[in-house]
Design a protein that fits this description.
By secondary structure, this protein is α/β, with parallel strands linked by helices. The chain has one domain: Vaccinia Virus protein VP39 (Rossmann fold), CATH 3.40.50.150. The chain has helices at residues 2-7, 14-26, 38-51, 54-57, 60-79, 95-98, 113-122, 142-155, 172-183, 198-213, 243-249, 255-261, and strands spanning 84-88, 106-111, 131-136, 159-162, 188-196, 235-242, 276-283. The protein has a seven-stranded mixed β-sheet. Helix 7 links the parallel strand 2 (106-111) and strand 3.
């Protein structure tokens, strides 16, 4: 137990967990995406963290489906005119290096200085496929993030914000405040988020909550309204991509999970049933 407790020392260490699952997917002959840097970024500790959380190891498909769904939204929005992508809590994401992106695209990575420095060191000899700027910031610092969002509004007119794996660590009031700050900038036209139901949050808290707490963080955000939570804070849900159904499409589910994926979808109010999705929201202040 003591060895496990030392593995996740900070919330940023969960980025190692995400990276190891991208690395494992990359090694498959039928990989739905390839991340040639994930293994180096995750390192041995990423693999150790994953193996120390059996609940997460049984749900590898969910990590893959989430990444795939975000990739798809990013590609679609770029094809529709997105000029800039803003990755909040970017962690060890390397989409500017692994995806085919237009050279004219602006990409902003926002995260804490330590994790961005670690990533820069690993990728020091690599060149991104688009314009890339790393912004060292704690998103909990409201004044700093508002200033940055305002700057984005001056530099681009059509931005996509992504926050993969971020909001679950915020309480509902903090998510609402972030949503309002983003909605206040018209240029931030779309926002891709992932949400879980209260039922799935309870399972996650039981299955991996103790390890997450070792990094001084908690799993918190699971709106009973589902994607509708964001409607009161300036955003309209446009697309809802069920993680389970995405996993089924990618042929990453076991027999029992495939059976569950055949049940009718529900993108509205969420309750005790385990459910998660990647959602695309539209800023209602955007023209």
């Amino acid at each position: 137990m003591e060895a496990k407790e030392r593995l996740i020392r900070h919330i940023s260490d969960t980025a190692l967990l995400a990276a190891i699952y991208r690395a494992r997917e990359t090694e498959r002959s039928d990989a739905v995406f390839r991340d040639p840097f994930a293994g180096r970024l995750a390192g041995e500790r990423g693999d150790q963290i994953a193996k120390s959380i059996p609940f997460s190891e049984r749900a590898t498909w969910a990590w893959v489906a989430r990444t795939y769904a975000y990739d798809r939204i990013i590609r679609e929005q770029i094809s529709l005119g997105t000029e800039a992508v803003v990755n909040l809590a970017a962690g060890l994401d390397v989409r500017p290096y692994r995806m085919e992106l237009p050279a004219s695209l602006k990409w902003f990575e926002v995260d804490l200085p330590e994790i961005l420095a670690y990533k820069e060191e690993i990728l020091r000899d690599q060149k991104p496929g688009c314009s890339l700027e790393r912004v060292r910031m704690d998103l909990a610092e409201v004044a700093a993030r508002r200033e940055f969002f305002t700057r984005l509004g001056r530099e681009a007119s059509n931005c996509l914000v992504i926050s993969e794996g971020l909001l679950i660590y915020f309480d509902p009031d903090a998510v609402a405040a972030l949503a309002r700050d983003l909605a206040a900038v018209e240029a931030l036209r779309h926002w891709a988020v992932d949400v879980v139901s209260p039922g799935l949050l309870a399972m996650l808290q039981k299955g991996m909550g103790q390890q997450i707490k070792q990094g001084n963080a908690e799993l918190r955000f699971a709106p009973k309204e589902g994607p509708g939570f964001f409607t009161a804070h300036g955003w309209t849900p446009l697309e809802v991509h069920s993680t389970l159904k995405t996993g089924a499409q990618l042929k990453r589910l076991n027999l029992w999970m495939r059976f569950l994926s055949l049940l009718p979808e529900s993108n509205g109010v969420q309750g005790a049933r385990p459910w998660s999705a990647v959602c695309l929201l539209r800023n209602r202040s955007a023209r």
